């Protein structure tokens, strides 16, 4: 395997190139050549290539993209492609950087993928807090339509596609793929009971594929360079390049493209320049807040989907690969409070144990912060996470699992500090909420 | 309902698979024009999309950026995600409250600013981060606030 610093970015190859947001500049750099190539092959051949590449969805769940595409029924007359740009997992901002720095590359990946799954319509579902990125993508869509890269008979291939941008009006749960569909249908985004999966019954009851922005950009490069190239990067079970976000207490936060399997310490100390003021690390979130917290002793780990499990390190998974670094000065009780607040305010309210459970835990976190915390509250949180999110099949969607892992890892791995912080606050005589 | 809005609704209906699919884009368009979605607008949107007003309300009431009452001319949205919180987000919010003399989800007496907080806004490398209307700022130092706010009349 090549060393990490030798890796040349693919997904971010145009970042920082002047005016690459303009179609002419993007094309000068080889843009839309891969689309030309794709349109000359059979859609089924591209699906097969994506399956062979081993591409796992980049939105957090890591589901095999090619396999998802093969769930589409044969002989269907209508297919929708929904592009999930509702990036809202705390710590995650790589899709934002892709859309603002290189919107045409994002769009080219979408058009190729739509062709592969035979979709005639694609909807890009983008979060409300990304207005500048929505404008960049909207302008790219307009330019592409003018140039015959969208619409009827794209590049003379007979393939027809329209891409529309759909703005979320503010809700984390819309990132869950069936919540996204409900939202696109104009409803409150309550996730659907599965099966049926969207590939069978999705948007307006029609077969629908939902993929993350980064996933579809990977598809572009798989079609360009082949499945073997893709598998030559990363680990056996987690192939390909990945965009890693690093933020929190680091010197140079940002998005870094590396092959999967890169060590978490490399991301923190080499890519992001190390911890601010050269302090030591107290805790790290490996892949967005839902994945849970690692201690400083657990960060010598390859960033791959197989590295993060309940058994190995108490984590839910690699998630979005969004790393948040917390240094030794961090007050972990405030971190617990922030985490509990997030899930309580974003639970959609559909399943009782998630709605009530996240609410209770936030209430306890508030009381702890106000000086009224008790040691047994930590036991209650640990027990609650076990019942709410760690028994599979309890809830309609994964939000309660996402709430359980970070809260559970906080109370189990940082218990001594949490007790100490509660005592401190009690001693200060803060009012009991 | 203005002619321009009717035209946009017709366009949304062409773009989306069902009439209700056009609801969120329509509500955002109403809000762009009027600042918020009034009770009267709910009735009008329902009629235009052939939906029950209760259906419109059900959707409208869920999303955090749909407003059912007047807000300030400019919305200051401060991120309260974990990366922002540990990089000075709370101080930034506190300073904004002091400067604007309002709390969260309140509007200044002159109707110029409404202050809100939002969960992780996806700009963690710019922590602490905030959006004023459509413009992102970060990392924001407290001494830059006057300069930023003065751009919004």
- Large-scale geometry of chain A: globular
Give the topology string of chain A: H per helix, E per strand. Answer: HHHHEHHEHEHEHHEEHEEHEHHHHH
- Spans where pLDDT lies below 50 across 5 or more residues of chain A: none
> What is the class of the largest domain in chain B in the CATH system?
Alpha Beta
Estimate the helix proportion of chain A, in percent.
40-55%
Proportion of helical residues of chain B: 40-55%
Oligomer: heterodimer
Q: What class do helices, strands and sheet pairing of chain A give?
A: alpha/beta
Q: What number is the mean pLDDT of chain B?
A: 97
The end-to-end span of chain A amounts to: 55 Å
Number of strands of chain A: 9
> What's the tally of helices of chain A?
17
Extract low-pLDDT stretches of chain B.
none
What report would you give on this structure?
The complex is a heterodimer of chains A (433) and B (153). Chain A has 433 residues and is an alpha/beta fold. Chain A has three domains: 229 residues, NADH-ubiquinone oxidoreductase 51kDa subunit (Rossmann fold, 3-Layer(aba) Sandwich), CATH 3.40.50.11540; 87 residues, Ubiquitin-like (UB roll) (Roll); 96 residues, de novo design (two linked rop proteins) (Up-down Bundle), CATH 1.20.1440.230. Chain A has 17 helices and nine strands. In chain A, the strands form two sheets. A five-stranded mixed β-sheet of chain A has the order 6-5-9-7-8, covered by helices on one side. The relative contact order of chain A is 0.12. The model of chain A has no long low-confidence stretch (mean pLDDT 95). In chain B, strands 2-3-1-4-5 form a five-stranded mixed β-sheet, with helices on one face. Chain B has two domains: 58 residues, Arc Repressor Mutant, subunit A (Orthogonal Bundle), CATH 1.10.10; 76 residues, Glutaredoxin (3-Layer(aba) Sandwich). By secondary structure, chain B is α+β, with helices and mostly antiparallel strands. Chain B has six helices and five strands; from the N terminus they run H-H-H-H-E-H-E-E-E-E-H. Chains A and B meet through strand 3, strand 5, strand 9 and helix 13 of A and helix 2 and helix 5 of B.
């Amino acid at each position: 395997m090549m060393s990490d610093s030798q890796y040349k970015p693919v997904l971010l190859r145009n970042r920082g190139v002047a005016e690459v947001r303009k179609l002419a500049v993007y094309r000068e750099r080889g843009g839309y050549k891969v689309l030309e190539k794709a349109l000359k092959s059979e859609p089924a051949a591209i699906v097969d290539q994506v399956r062979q590449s081993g591409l796992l969805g980049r939105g957090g769940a890591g589901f095999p993209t090619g396999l998802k595409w093969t769930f589409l029924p044969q002989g269907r007359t209508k297919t929708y492609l929904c592009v999930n740009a509702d990036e809202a997992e705390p710590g995650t901002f790589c899709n934002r950087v892709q859309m603002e720095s290189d919107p045409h590359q994002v769009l080219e990946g979408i058009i190729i993928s739509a062709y592969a799954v035979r979709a005639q319509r694609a909807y890009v579902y983008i979060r409300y807090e990304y207005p500048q990125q929505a404008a960049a993508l909207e302008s790219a869509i307009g330019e592409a339509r003018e140039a015959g890269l969208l619409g009827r008979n794209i590049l003379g291939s007979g393939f027809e596609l329209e891409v529309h941008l759909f703005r979320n009006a503010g809700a984390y749960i819309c990132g869950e793929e069936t919540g996204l569909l409900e939202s696109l249908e104009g409803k409150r985004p309550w996730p659907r009971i599965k099966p049926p999966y969207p590939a069978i019954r999705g948007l307006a009851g029609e077969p629908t594929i939902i993929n993350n922005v980064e996933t579809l950009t990977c598809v572009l490069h798989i079609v360009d360079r082949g499945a073997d190239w893709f598998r030559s990067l990363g680990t056996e079970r987690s192939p390909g390049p990945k965009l890693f976000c690093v933020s929190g207490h680091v010197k140079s936060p940002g998005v870094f493209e590396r092959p999967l399997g890169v060590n978490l310490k490399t991301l923190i100390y080499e890519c992001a320049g190390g911890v601010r003021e050269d302090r030591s690390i107290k805790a790290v979130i490996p892949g967005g807040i839902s994945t849970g917290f690692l201690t400083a002793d657990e960060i010598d780990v390859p960033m791959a989907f197989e590295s993060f499990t309940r058994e190995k390190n108490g984590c839910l998974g690699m998630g979005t690969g969004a790393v948040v670094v917390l240094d030794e000065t961090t007050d972990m009780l405030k971190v617990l409070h922030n985490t509990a607040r997030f899930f309580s305010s974003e639970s959609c309210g559909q399943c009782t144990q998630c709605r009530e459970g996240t609410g209770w835990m936030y209430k306890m976190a508030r009381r702890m912060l106000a000086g009224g915390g008790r040691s047994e509250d930590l036991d209650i949180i640990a027990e609650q996470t076990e019942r709410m999110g760690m028994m599979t099949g309890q809830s309609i969607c994964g939000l309660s699992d996402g709430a359980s892992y970070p809260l559970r890892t906080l109370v189990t791995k940082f218990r001594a500090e949490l007790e100490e912080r509660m005592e401190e606050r009690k001693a200060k005589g803060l009012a009991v909420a | 309902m203005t002619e321009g809005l009717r035209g946009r609704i017709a366009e949304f209906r062409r773009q989306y698979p069902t009439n209700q699919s056009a609801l969120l884009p329509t509500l955002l368009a109403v809000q762009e024009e009027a600042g918020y979605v009034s009770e009267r607008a709910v009735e009008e949107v329902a009629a235009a999309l052939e939906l029950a007003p209760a259906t419109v309300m059900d959707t409208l009431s869920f999303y955090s950026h749909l407003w059912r009452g007047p807000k300030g001319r400019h919305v200051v949205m401060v991120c309260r995600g974990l990366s922002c919180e540990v990089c000075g987000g709370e101080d930034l919010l506190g300073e904004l409250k002091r400067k604007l003399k309002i709390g969260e989800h309140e509007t200044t007496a002159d109707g110029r600013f409404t202050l809100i907080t939002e969960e992780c806004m996806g700009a963690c490398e710019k922590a602490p981060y905030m959006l004023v209307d459509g413009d992102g700022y970060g990392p924001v130092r407290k001494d830059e606030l006057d300069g930023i706010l003065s751009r919004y009349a």
